Amino acid sequence: MTTFDARLSSYSSPLLSLFRIIAGLMFFLHGTMKIFGWPIGEAIPVGTWPLWWAGMIELVAGLLITVGLFTRIAAFIASGEMAVAYFWMHWPPLEGPPASFWPFENGGEAVLLYCFGFLAIAGLGPGAWSADARRRTRVGGAAPGRVVTGTAAPAATAGPAATAAPVRRRGLLSRFRR
Q1: Between 20 and 30 A from 150 (CA), which of 45, 69, 137, 173?
Q2: Each residue of 38-76: pLDDT tens digit?
Q3: Burial 65-77 (b: 16+ CB within 10 A, else e)
Q4: What is the pLDDT of residue 66?
Q5: ω before 154 within 30° of 0 (cis)?
Q6: Where are the transmembrane segments (predicted)?
Q7: Which tens digit of pLDDT belongs to each residue from 64-119?
Q8: How far apart are CA 112 and CA 83, in angstroms?
Q9: From CA 136, how far away is CA 133, in angstroms rounded?
Q10: CA 107 to chain centroid
Q11: Is the pTM of this model over 0.90?
Q12: Of all helices (H) and strands (E), which one includes residue 84?
């Protein structure tokens, strides 16, 4: 007999992908509204600081997150942009007019949700339905006998990989140390 948690855990990667796609698409649309004035609003003049540049980050990062390409870095950058937006525009503790700390009052509710949603995507990965997951399986993938952890990792069902302990991933700089 399976529990409710066990049933839902089998859907964690597709649900993460669905969350990533919707959040990325909404972020992308925020960028299109600022850059092109589409689907609603008016376009911001090119180069206007900081809104036009924020729109460019939202446009590019939103598209990458939606497709699932370079997802972790795009989500990390998007999360950082939203953190800056909250502290600079919604609750400016260092400069600007005094505003309420509470996001419900200062209009920063959606900004905080984007910030921590993208931070979760950066930490959890893109999920199974992503260009990153397809690239990983085509270009090398996991080495035989190596256990890869994460939401987009293929499940090892038989063989030595099924019982082996997870292998520590080495950092980017370790590839240059030989």
Answers
A1: 173
A2: 999 999 999 999 999 999 999 999 999 999 999 999 999
A3: bbbbebbeebbbb
A4: 98
A5: no
A6: 12-29, 49-66, 73-91, 111-129
A7: 999 999 999 999 999 999 999 998 888 887 676 788 888 999 899 999 999 999 99
A8: 7
A9: 5
A10: 22
A11: no
A12: helix 71-85
Closest to 86 measured CA to CA, from 118, 63, 61, 59:
118
Q: Are 87 and 93 in contact (CB under 8 A)?
A: yes
Structure tokens at 37: 């004035």
| Tokens coding 57 | 């980050």
- The set of residues, in sequence order, having a beta carbon less than 8 Å from that of 30 and lying 6+ positions away, is 55, 58, 62
Q: Tokens in use for 78?
A: 């998007």
Yes or no: say if 129 and 21 are a contact pair by the CB < 8 Å rule.
yes
Q: Pick the closest to residue 126 from 17, 28, 18, 19 (CA basis).
A: 17
